[in-house]
Amino acid sequence: KARTVKESTYSNRGMTLEEDLNESNQYYLSHDIAVVHKKPTPVQIVNVDYPKRSAAVIKEAYFKQASTTDYNGVYRGKYLDFEAKETKNKTSFPLQNFHEHQIHHMKQVVKQQGIAFVILMFTAAEEIYLLKAEDLFPYWEKMKQDGRKSIPKKDVEEKGFLIRYGFHPRIDYIKIIDKLYF
Amino acid sequence: KARTVKESTYSNRGMTLEEDLNESNQYYLSHDIAVVHKKPTPVQIVNVDYPKRSAAVIKEAYFKQASTTDYNGVYRGKYLDFEAKETKNKTSFPLQNFHEHQIHHMKQVVKQQGIAFVILMFTAAEEIYLLKAEDLFPYWEKMKQDGRKSIPKKDVEEKGFLIRYGFHPRIDYIKIIDKLYF
Ligand SMILES: [Mg+2]
Ligand SMILES: [Mg+2]
């Protein structure tokens, strides 16, 4: 059955966090603070209709696995790269929210001296944390060696940095980046 | 009339250059030299079919104007951002190959101390140049003030940097970046 959808409603999970990040990035952009954009959803286009006198219509396409994280950009000359995820879970952050290729990409970024991190939201507590990618990797590796499949919330609280929810920008993650890397 | 197309054949213009850049970026990635990806084509999705037991099919979607350039990434910690264009023109590079929002984006990147440039290919001469965004902007501004709508090839030769076509990577633009910015 076909459904008509708005562009941004694909994943119900993550909707608000994504909107808040877009608002924040827009704030950074218009105030010359940072240039960060969300990458478009990758789509494999199979069939396109070119009607006379109107715009091309994509008639058949499929969602593709992204090869990178969703957000990247530049802040004070440095490369920023991150993924944002949320969970309804109260006591831990499930690692299956991430994909192997995203972790792999963040490792490549870190190797190239870029700034890579994740923004983790616990929706029940309404808490948002910035966790450096370097602090995420060990949990991922342990999971792959049959370890636990989530990061305990208290570890996120200890290793991550709480981002207070604001009015404008709503998620001021650059403030944390500034303290951590500059 | 509907046509079945391969993902990468939308623009005939730019096809080979895009493939060569993808190959070069793949080379950089696998050799830990740089992490640069082409952004997905932005698409406005209107209607999606979710069949039982198989992948979601996008049934109606439209091409959207990109708000940034096509390529970005990280090299030695620094943010890289560029657009690649080609022309069949022998004596000048037409500026209508660029869009206002791409120029605007590159200006924002430069303000944020990122490295922004364009890769210009003259297909007849089989010559590829890297031109810093800062050296492109004045031509764009002059055009907007009713000036000439292209950059003379000799100006590209003088202000830009010839990238010799190679075997692997095919377009070694990082070599130029290295000399210019590090
Ligand atoms: Mg994502
Ligand atoms: Mg383009």
Q: How would you describe what is shown here?
A:
Chains A, B: One of its GO terms (biological process) is DNA recombination. Chains A, B: It catalyses: Endonucleolytic cleavage at a junction such as a reciprocal single-stranded crossover between two homologous DNA duplexes (Holliday junction). Chains A, B: Its main location: cytoplasm. Chains A, B: Keywords: Cytoplasm, DNA damage, DNA recombination, DNA repair, Endonuclease, Hydrolase, Magnesium, Metal-binding, Nuclease. The structure is a homodimer of 182-residue chains. Chain A has one domain: Trna Endonuclease, Chain: A, domain 1 (3-Layer(aba) Sandwich), CATH 3.40.1350. Chain A is built from five helices and eleven strands; from the N terminus they run βαββββββαββαβαβα. Chain A has helices at 15-30, 100-111, 133-144, 153-159, 173-181, and strands at residues 2-4, 35-38, 43-49, 57-63, 71-75, 78-87, 92-94, 115-122, 127-132, 150-152, 161-162. In chain A, the strands form three sheets. Chain A has a six-stranded mixed beta sheet with strand order 2-5-6-8-9-11, sandwiched between helices. In chain A, helix 2 (100-111) crosses helix 3. The model of chain A is unreliable at 5-14 (pLDDT under 50). Chains A and B meet through strand 1, strand 3, strand 4, strand 5 and strand 6 of A and strand 1, strand 3, strand 4, strand 5 and strand 6 of B. Bound molecules: magnesium ion (MG) (2 copies).
